[in-house]
Design goal:
The protein has 4 helices and 11 strands; from the N terminus they run H-E-E-E-H-E-E-H-E-E-H-E-E-E-E. The protein is mainly β and 210 residues long. Strands 1, 4, 5, 8, 9 and 10 form a 6-stranded mixed sheet that branches. Strands 3-2-11-6-7 form a 5-stranded mixed sheet. Strand 6 and strand 7 (119-123) form a beta hairpin. The longest helix is centred in the first third of the chain and has 8 residues, at 7-14.
Length: 210
């Protein structure tokens, strides 16, 4: 008899990868800039911009991590062409944030803000996906600092750069605006199934002019 099939390979067999992607063993560390130092007493998660009541909503680290905990089993597709499949992400669903801090009726997009002013924009419909989650855990364990602790966004149907590490807040917007990588040549939408990697691939209407 052969060796038992690993969970990783079973997940790969059951999952269809987007075009141009390859199965990754393990989880490479990829990010721009240094790993920020977590200071729980200073940490705050903010929702601001075009909110329904015109104000902003803030949570301390203790308050945010006390919100209802959920899990999502989902793949992660990096624009550098590796895919990690079948991971269990645990944390606070993006929909919970939308329910607790509703956007105004005219909101069409969000900007997700992270440490050092890093940002990623996406359509409100992408952010509101039932599988989008502000993850604190992967496979039952707390995220490491290199992988985004204390909080990273996972949006499984978009390339991984759309889910920043070290998230600190969400801005509701009534018009689209490009985030950090989107201003630097990456596709404004970032759908891995359509291989939307770079801005030169954009069609009219995919995003604001560069």
């Amino acid at each position: 008899m052969g060796q038992p099939e690993s969970a990783e390979h079973r997940a790969a067999r059951e999952s269809t990868l987007p075009p141009g992607q390859r199965l990754q063993r393990g989880w490479p560390v990829t990010h721009y800039g240094p790993v920020p130092k977590f200071r729980p007493e200073r940490w705050e998660f903010r929702v601001f911009g075009a909110t329904a009541d015109g104000g902003k909503r803030c949570w301390s680290h203790e308050e945010f991590t006390a919100l209802p905990f959920s899990t999502v089993v989902a793949d992660l597709h990096c624009v550098t062409k590796f895919s990690m499949v079948g991971a269990e992400w645990g944390g606070v669903p993006a929909r919970t944030v939308l329910e607790l801090a509703p956007p105004a009726p005219g909101v069409t997009h969000v900007m997700v803000w992270a440490e050092y002013g890093f940002s990623a924009n996406m359509r409100l419909s992408d952010f509101a996906s039932e599988r989008a989650i502000f993850a604190t855990h992967k496979d039952g364990e707390l995220l490491t600092a290199e992988h985004g602790f204390p909080l990273r966004l996972i949006v499984p149907h978009l390339y991984a750069w759309k889910g920043p590490k070290w998230v600190r807040g969400v801005e509701y917007m009534t018009a689209d605006r490009r985030g950090f990588w989107e201003e630097r040549g990456y596709h404004n939408i970032g759908d891995p199934w359509a291989e939307q990697r770079y801005s030169y691939q954009e069609e009219p209407g995919d995003g604001p002019e560069l």
